[in-house]
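We close this part of the discussion by returning to an individual protein. The sequence in question and its structure tokens are set out directly beneath this paragraph:
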Amino acid sequence: MKSEVLNVTGMSGSACASIVTKALKAVPGVEQVSVSLNANQATVRFDEGRVSARNLEDALSQSGFGVASTKAPNSGCCGGCGG
């Protein structure tokens, strides 16, 4: 099993958190979902052989929500030079 934290965009209240939970739990292979409205995050535990992060993002998108990237914007620097 794998756990992934998704930064969910578009949540504004407890009804949104409920919709996000239901949408993610409906994905075959998802075992557990925990949504934090305050943090705008969903923690999902799933069978990585049956589910990909893309499947989770698609389920949220179809429910009217998005996923913000947790990666830093590409500054063009690989970090190897210290600059």
